[in-house]
Amino acid sequence: MANASVPILNAAQALKAADAFREQFAAGSSQRDRSRELPYEEIERLKQSGLLALRVPREYGGAEIDILTFSQVLRTLAAGDPNIAQAVAPQFTNLEKLRLYGRESQKQSYFAHTLSGGLMSNAAAEKGGNFIGDVSTTLQRSGQGWRLNGRKAYSTGSLFSTIILVTALHPDGGRAAIFVPQDRAGVTVHNDWDGMGQRTTASGTTEYQDVVIDEDEILPVPAFGQRRTHEGAFAQLLHCAIDAGIAQAALEDACAYGREHARVLRESGVADATQDPYVLHTVGEMAIQTHGADALLERGARLLDRALQASYENAGEADRLLAEASIAIAEAKYATTEASLWVSEKLFRLGGASATTQAINLDRHWRNARTHTTHDPVSYKARAVGDFYLNGTLPPINTKI
Questions:
Q1: Do the bridges between strand 206-213 and strand 163-169 make them parallel or antiparallel, or are there none, so unpaired?
Q2: Where are the domains of the chain?
Q3: Is the pTM of this model over 0.85?
Q4: Residues paired with 138 in a beta bridge
Q5: Are the C-beta atoms of residues 206 and 164 closer than 8 Å to each other?
Q6: Do 208 and 303 touch, CB atoms closer than 8 A?
Q7: pLDDT for 235-254, tens place per residue?
Q8: Percent of the chain with pLDDT over 70
Q9: Long-range contacts formed by 184-189: CB under 8 A, 24+ apart
Q10: What confidence tier does 53 reach under pLDDT thresholds 50, 70, 90?
Q11: What CA–CA distance (Å, rounded) separates 231 from 168?
């Protein structure tokens, strides 16, 4: 069992800490967005808070917080600043991958790394290829060790990280995930992400040139379709939580603008925007969209908690429960995507031209939503949901759906 240097938080403590960080992050989120100022200090405080270690298993000294609470924590952080939430999200997918596929020596090492305040990012995506997810980065034998060569795009959070989990082709076939220290010789991390939204996630390019790799840094990844796990659904749940947080932040900023700045037309017959029936209608619709998405996020998290427990117990129903949880999270992903986009756009119905000024930067919510929701096409999720309810078809194994 690892000796932790970060606090081991229970559910109540984690939610309270997330609320405090949300307030801190929100205070500077607009300015960081305008200036593309990376949140080094904010993420450093997160590293030491214990929140980034919430999913470390108990047997390795962690809290192993339930997925429902975890999703609420990430959503709360995203409501403060979705850039920070996205920048640290790879840590959690890496921990689940480690738990599923890691050797005992790797679990001991990398769970301990997390409990000491380390942050793991990832580098999976590449530009080029015929299909999304194609990989050309290679791992090759070299003497008694290995060498890694390749170039990755969208390496989210890598400028903040201590370790980057790099997806590469394994010479024996299939793929492997490589735990690469960020400061190792041959690793270059570029601050070249220039998306219109999520501007400070440090989602830039990383390059790997003859990087020396040790055997115990290689995590073989099973081929698609061999085993249904919670890995894909869990990763999708993170994106749901971030989008739900964006919607919540947009709703709250819309309400604040409506109370403090919005003016009314003479024809409205009221003296204050807070009494304008069309403003009330708009805010009402925004709240309904936001809270409806929240409800589906919570439902998906609850079902994934139940399915994960069944899989740990090797219950005969585990495969079915995991599939049903994947469908529920596909529903949540569709709903949170639509809510984040719809709410962040409709907030401009509450204000005139002054709502578009850079000084208040309300457009960052829509830019963040539009950028983050390009992660994967939700039309495929709606199709999978429809196929499940209409035909009883389970979603494919080990996919994003």
A1: unpaired
A2: 11-118, 138-221, 231-391
A3: yes
A4: 149, 169
A5: yes
A6: no
A7: 999 999 999 999 999 999 99
A8: 98
A9: 184/211, 184/212, 185/211, 185/212, 186/148, 186/210, 186/211, 186/212, 187/211, 189/155, 189/158, 189/159, 189/164
A10: very high
A11: 18
Residue 333 structure tokens: 């992903």
Cα–Cα distances (Å) from 125 to 168, 172, 212, in that order, read: 10, 21, 21
Identical fold at 11-118 and 231-391?
no
C-alpha dist (Å) from residue 40 to 22, 83, 197: 16, 12, 18
CATH label, 138-221, candidates 3.30.413.10, 2.60.120.430, 2.40.110.10, 3.30.428.10: 2.40.110.10
- Distance from C-alpha of 233 to C-alpha of 376, rounded to nearest angstrom: 13
Helices (H), 261-317: 277-312
Other beta carbons less than 10 A from residue 322's beta carbon: 25
Give 1's pLDDT tier (boundaries 50, 70, 90). very low
Both tokens of residue 121?
Answer: 């990012």
Q: From its phi and psi, is residue 331 left (phi > 0), alpha (psi between -120 and 50) or beta?
A: alpha
3-state class (DSSP) for residue 358:
coil
What angle do the packed helices 318-346 and 363-372 form, to 10 degrees? 150
State which CATH number among 3.30.460.40, 1.10.760.10, 1.10.540.10, 1.10.730.10 fits the domain covering 11-118: 1.10.540.10
Pairing of strands 175-181, 218-221: antiparallel
Give the least confident one: 169-183, 232-246, 262-276: 262-276
What is the rounded distance in angstroms from the CA atom of residue 244 to the CA atom of residue 246?
5
Q: Does 1.20.140.10 match the CATH number of domain 231-391? A: yes
Q: How many helices (H) and strands (E) does the chain have?
A: 10, 8
pLDDT score at 226: 74
State both tokens at 178.
């490589």
